[in-house]
Design a protein that fits this description.
alpha/beta, Restriction endonuclease-like alpha-beta roll fold, six-stranded mixed β-sheet, five-stranded mixed β-sheet, 4 helices, 11 strands
Length: about 180
């Protein structure tokens, strides 16, 4: 018998002073049975970083052909593809071929080992940005996960803070590869 997704609801208020983006989003996240709370919350942070009216969560782990989030234009072309975790070379190269911009957000303590083995293989991808989120911070984010959440995200001068009113987590990021 197949396991079903667990549904999470999040009201996410974003104050992104770097982009002058101020909006509240009512989000529904389907958490795959194999997904951790930490990974789901990293998807939420990735949404906050790139938020706009066209950015959506995809089938993600339920469909290996789709990234975790994407932004499609009116013709259906993928403008932005966002992967969370440590995808392999084939997944990244395919995303770079199909999308105008590709972001990968890694968050594990082993991310630097993963990136060391992958960096040379994806160097030719001019539309790829790889960002490593601090593993301690993302672990704290996982502890904030609730079935119903009210969250505020503030982004200023490249710094990210996410709070649920009780706990505030600063998520630092290191860019491992930038789009050229």
């Amino acid at each position: 018998m197949a396991l079903k997704a667990t549904i999470y609801k999040a009201e996410l208020s974003i104050a992104d002073m770097d982009r002058n983006y101020y909006e509240t989003h009512q989000l529904t996240l389907a958490r795959h049975p194999s997904e951790t709370d930490e990974r789901m919350m990293v998807r939420l942070v990735a949404f906050a970083i790139h938020a706009n009216e066209a950015l959506t969560f995809t089938k993600g782990l339920f469909d290996v052909e789709e990234p975790d989030l994407w932004h499609k234009d009116l013709t259906g072309a993928i403008e932005l593809s966002i992967q969370v975790g440590q995808p392999d070379e084939k997944v990244i190269l395919k995303a770079c071929g199909r999308s105008e911009h590709v972001y990968v957000y890694s968050y594990a303590a082993t991310s630097h080992i993963w990136w060391k083995g992958l960096a040379n293989k994806v160097e030719r991808c001019k539309n790829l940005t790889v960002v490593d989120l601090n593993a301690d911070a993302t672990e704290q984010l996982g502890k904030m996960a609730q079935r119903t959440m009210q969250l505020q995200c503030t982004i200023q001068d490249g710094q990210i803070w996410l709070t649920d009113g009780t706990t505030t987590v600063e998520v630092t990021r290191e860019v491992l590869k930038s789009e050229r």
